[in-house]
Amino acid sequence: HARTSDRPAVGGGGAITITPMEPDDEALKELAAASSRPPQRRGISYSQPLSRGDTASARRAALRNLSLDDDHVLPASHSLSYAHHDSSAGVPAGYHPPLPPQQQHHHHPSASYSSGPSSRRSVGGASDGSMTLERAMSEYGGGAGTLPEFVGAGGGKGIFRVPLRAAMHPHRPPPLEVRPHPLRETQAGSFLRTLASDPQRRQLWAGAESGIRVWALDEVFAGWGAGARRGDEESAPFREGVPAPPALCVAMDRANGLLWTGHKDGRIRSWRMDLETAATAPAPPPPGSGGEGSVGGSAHGGPNSAPVFREALTWQAYGRTPVLSMAITSYGEIWSGSEAGVIKAWPYDAIAKSLSLSPEERHMAALLVERAYIDLRNHCTVGNVCSLPASDVKYMLADHSRAKVWTLTSMTFALWDARTRELLKVFGMDGQVESARLDAPVMPEQPMEEVEVKVKPSKKDKSGGSLNFFQKSRNALMGAADAVRRVATKGTFVEDNRRTGAVAQADDGAIWSGCTNGCIIQWDGNGNRMQEFQHHTSSVQCIKALGDRVWVGYASGTVQVMDVDGNLLAGWTGHSCPVIRMAIGGSYIYTLAHHGGIRGWPLTSPGPLDDVLRTELANKELSYTRMEKINIMVGSWNVAQGKATAESLKAWLGSVASDVGLVVVGLQEVEMGAGFLAISAAKETVGLEGSANGQWWIDNIGKALDEGTSFHRVGSRQLAALLIAAWARKSLKPYVGDVEAAAVPCGLGRAIGNKGGVGLRIRVYDRKMCFVSNHFAAHLEAVARRNADFDHIYRTMAFNKPHGSTSSATSVQLHKTVNVNGNPVDEVRPDLADADMVVFLGDFNYRLYGITYDEARDMVSQRSFDWLREKDQLRAEMKAGKVFQGMREGLIKFPPTYKFQKHAPGLGGYDSGEKKRIPAWCDRVLYRDSRAVSVAECSLECPVVAAITSYVAVMEVTESDHKPVRCTFSVDIARVDELTRRQEYGEIIESNEEVRSMLKESCFVPDSTVSTEEIILENQENIVFQITNNCETSKAAFEILCEGQSTKKDDGTKPEIIPRASFGFPLWLEVLPANGLIKPGETVDITIHHEDFYTQEEFVDGIPQNWWCEDTRDKEAVIVVNITGSTSTETKTHTINVRHRCPATSAPPPINPPVTLTPPSNNMPSEAPSKRSSKKKEASRQQQQDYAQFASTEVHDLYRMRCP
User: Fold this and answer.
1) Is 594 within 8 Å of 578 (Cβ atoms)?
2) Contact 754, 721 (CB under 8 A)
3) Alpha carbon distance 279, 272 (integer Å)
4) Percent residues over pLDDT 70 in the chain
5) Which domains does the chain have, with CATH numbers?
6) Tally of CB atoms within 10 A around 494
7) Interatomic CA distance for residues 75 and 54, integer angstroms
8) Contact 932, 107 (CB under 8 A)
9) Residues paired with residue 334 on neighbouring β-strands, in sequence order
10) Where is each Inositol polyphosphate-related phosphatase domain found (predicted)?
11) Rounded CA gap, 706 and 702, in Å?
12) Helix, strand, or coil here: 679?
């Protein structure tokens, strides 16, 4: 409880007058009533669910605008102001006692409070309507050991508005958190990079840097119990494959129950989807075998140390290059792409034979497939002339509608016939056909040149030559930096924002490709551009389609929904980082974020289902809210290029480190000098940082903190003379991470790091905290420059992974901030504005004004700090709303920290030389937390509430002309227990009748009719059947697959049906189109053609060895027509039996030797099967005549035939 006191103001301190407002609505009346009486303090059990009997209804009535982990804020300002204060100024300046978190908090534009979280009484409740400063401090400032705080004006609006959070985002669908955002530090070597789903088996597969893992979607609402891998404690349970090199691409083979993966080591692996029958191996030990790889005793991420499953078949596809892309064609072949434009086709016959071998014959099986490949690049190269570019084949798409394959590099497209493997067309992003080129050997990438920047030291006297050197050498310094930058970017594409980043096929047959500038291009099946449109400026990372909808994921984290014509239907922020992959399963589309988190979004979104789920989950907010508390110590010191003794570091930091969980230290003037600053500026341009002096400080501060035993270092960043580093207690390791660094120079030309800021962004209990170490412009009169330095740092500081990070995200981050012209996009909120807590520390260089040296020394000796505070430039500028808008500083009760003579003890050590610099509080610590208003309790709406418990200067340290300062915070953090919330989500889906009804409606499949259930083949004629959409309101998507083929048996027994990969068609059968979209009440024609005799080939090491003609008249096939809607993967199936009228009797025609290959034509052949050319070989004249019959007008009309 707050202490009351009637003591008068002392020490000459000024007084502030606080006039209570007249409440103008019921909300303020309730607030005034609540603040007029001191409520009883209620105990909170941390890390436990809050009581359901608490004030949940009041908090849920508050405005909910932001999710917990995303970077978005409300467009409207929620700043509050006193009645006597100009409301446009936002939060007014002045000392205000730390007020308590109230039982209810209200957002209103006409009242302002500024407080800490400890006292239990509102300033507005003063009985006499006014209060002196010292009375306010003594009466309200001592609650729970916290300090009174001074709050700068200008907060609460624009970029200085705090990001309001909420348990449920009101402007996006409630996601199903399959895998909550894991800390980056827990994912070393196991980041997820690909995603695929099997709707029939209800499985979600992900390719990781360490292999493969799979989620059973039926168990997605369950928890691990004891035995989760570190970083996956709140993830839905999953199983893992044996450790393998990074999986870069995946392809789903539903026919054989296999997932095919391409890996960085050049191997292709397959994994059985039926995990019950898959071969298993014991779970490997966790990394390091020290128990840190799991929580609760698990060894490898499976529940109760479940064994991992082995691959079914694996072979070496490429010798020294990775498998970058994969696709399974309409005929069941696996195609793979690698570096330098190398494309290989793997015939399914060889794969099927290898899969049939026993595990003991695994080596033989791999060798059989390895040598059976077809080198498609050589296949279309004649006389060293090839139309294919020698660039990495990054993407591959099987067009099942037309039996084609698209292979893509960053800048070009190639179109192939899936059946004949013929290259049909090569064209650029503008649609222009590429001409054939000489296929010269690909030269290895040239190493980056090294440039040594040498700066000769000045021969002039150091006392007056340093600044003069800077002024005369500025152009030389900038030139050196530019030279290094040019070398670093040598050979890169200037048109980097116009590359292909994703490709997919919509269900209407159109091909969609996304560009890194946000544009989306639609192509028809022949590679002709249909249209280009753009709904977002960020890079397109992935595209997925179902029915009449298409989903697009962007590098900004945005997910957009469009119709098949490209019209934007909806969009929302899916993740706080790039959405790199998507997969559809059941009634959800799953998105994989760059940080490894996976979320599921209802396919009906946005829609009524979202509103019901959001409301129900909000009502259960207290069940998944967890409260945490952490003490944070922040220290700042301008070390004046010196070094400190162990005793000084212990006095500064070590003496109180035992009571804190997180330590952040900022240093200024670690190392100065023209040469050092020039080299540092040049190194920054190529991503290099640090110095020997900086490392010395980091190491020795670590020793003072008992690093390795009590603390572990979480991150650091150095910019020339500026340094910041952070340590976390080892017990907090699972909750502190995702460290990102940033640097903003403010020196000469905003390019040199003698002045500026360095920052760290750290995720603490799922909340973003930013710490920035600064050094602003010097000299008494440079107030405006100091204000400008802060503004520049606050607006431009952009956090990135620390230098040397192994995670590659440069291309992703590059395209988040450029538009089509390469210019910055519309202004967005700075990174610092979107943090839950921001702490600025450092040598701000604000001085005392209107006072002489002797007067200042007098006041210091009398400890009249209250009078000196009135002369503080920083306080005056904050009060005017010109700097540190809305930020807070604890009451200063220590002497000015500048300027001292080195090694001079006590207050007598102030500068007494010729210049006699006036003592000043240059070294400061300021902060803001999540409070949009001062009266706010810690909750999911206001997740970080801090209070200053200590703010001191260590006067006994004498190694510098500045004294180090130290500030300690007590921080309350509200976070979401994602496991509990996911279980609540599952309970709502299971028990809520309204939700169950909506989900049932979303599984609607349009009624359809297929005109036949049996097709008789004869005389190689085209046969047409029809699919009709009987629904009058919804489009129907159809997909035609081949369940398998069989060979007739003479004894009349039922033959075995053998499927090809991914239910591909046999090579003797063509079905066009094999998928598409049918409008309501309309009908589509499907054409089937077959060949009585088909030429087969056998390749060894990419070279054709044998060929033969196969009689297909004894073959039968089962065709399946699957019908789906647009909001679920539920299907209705029609089956068609395909057989010949008469058995095979005559011998096949003779085969001529293969003819010489010719370069492929760039003219697109007709869609009609009769005009397709085969580059394999020419068959007999009779066979050519059979091909001519493809265009025959004698077509079997099966329109009137209906399924019973």
Assistant:
1) yes
2) yes
3) 9
4) 72
5) 177-274+307-429+498-606 (2.130.10.10), 625-801+828-976 (3.60.10.10), 1004-1094+1113-1140 (2.60.40.10)
6) 8
7) 30
8) yes
9) 328, 346
10) 628-977
11) 6
12) helix
Tell me, what's the pLDDT at 908? 84
Backbone dihedral region for residue 225 (phi beyond 0: left; psi -120 to 50: alpha; all else: beta): left
The 3 state secondary structure assigned to 89-115 is: HCCCCEEECCCCCCCCCCCCCCCCCCC
User: In the structure encoding, which two tokens stand for residue 782, read together?
Assistant: 């440079």
Residue 791, H or E segment: helix 783-796
pLDDT at 134: 39
Residues 6+ apart with CB under 8 A from 601: 173, 175, 176, 559, 574, 588, 589, 590, 591
Q: Are 833 and 791 in contact (CB under 8 A)?
A: no
ω into 459 cis (within 30 of 0): no
Find the helix or strand (DSSP H, E) in which 984 lies: helix 978-991
CB 589 within 8 A of CB 603: yes
Residue 1105 Cα distances to 180, 1102, 1108, 1109, 1179, angstroms: 52, 9, 11, 14, 17
Using a CB cutoff of 8 Å and minimum separation of 24, what contacts does 133-136 make?
133/9, 133/13, 133/14, 133/15, 133/16, 133/95, 134/7, 134/8, 134/9, 134/10, 134/11, 134/13, 134/15, 134/866, 135/5, 135/6, 135/7, 135/8, 135/9, 136/16, 136/18, 136/95, 136/96, 136/97
- Note if the pTM is more than 0.85: no
3-class secondary-structure state, position 420: coil
CA–CA separation, 249 vs 363, rounded Å? 23
Q: Where are the beta strands (DSSP E) in 994-1129?
A: 1008-1010, 1014-1017, 1023-1029, 1036-1047, 1069-1072, 1075-1078, 1083-1090, 1093-1100, 1103-1111, 1115-1124
Instruction: For residue 652, give the DSSP letter.
Output: I
Dist. CA 774–CA 668, nearest whole Å: 7
d(CA 836, CA 163): 7
Q: Is 40 exposed, middle or buried (0-12, 13-18, 19+ CB in 10 A)?
A: exposed
Q: Which residues of the chain have pLDDT under 50?
A: 1-142, 287-304, 439-473, 476, 483-495, 803-827, 1146-1147, 1150-1204
Cα–Cα nearest to 714, from 728, 704, 732, 700: 728
Residue reference for tokens 């400008």: 788
Q: Chain-centre distance of CA 350, in angstroms?
A: 40
| Backbone CA torsion sign across 182, 209, 551, 991 | negative
The alpha carbon torsion through 1174, 1177, 1180, 1185 (nearest 10 deg) reads: 10
Question: How far apart, in whole angstroms, are the C-alpha atoms of residue 271 and residue 559?
Answer: 30
Q: Is 57 exposed, middle or buried (0-12, 13-18, 19+ CB in 10 A)?
A: exposed
Q: Using CA atoms, how far apart are residues 896 and 924, in angstroms rounded to an integer?
A: 10
- 3-state DSSP: the chain helix, strand, coil percent, rounded to 5? 20, 30, 50
Angstrom distances, CA of residue 779 to CA of 563, 868, 910, 912: 61, 18, 17, 17
Count of Cβ atoms closer than 10 Å to residue 350 Cβ:
20
Distance of CA 584 to the CA centre of its chain: 19
Closest CA to 557 of 614, 605, 595, 604: 595
Give the pairing type, strands 711-719 and 1014-1017. unpaired
Q: How many alpha carbons fall within 13 Å on the CB side of residue 910?
A: 19
Q: For all residues of the chain together, what is the average pLDDT?
A: 77
Tokens 């939700």 identify what position? Answer: 995
Q: How far apart are CA 500 and CA 1021, in angstroms?
A: 41
Residue type, 281: A
Task: Assess contact for 65 and 88: CB atoms under 8 A.
Answer: no
* Residue 753 structure tokens: 């790091």
- Exposed/middle/buried for residue 636 (C-beta within 10 Å: 0-12, 13-18, 19+): buried
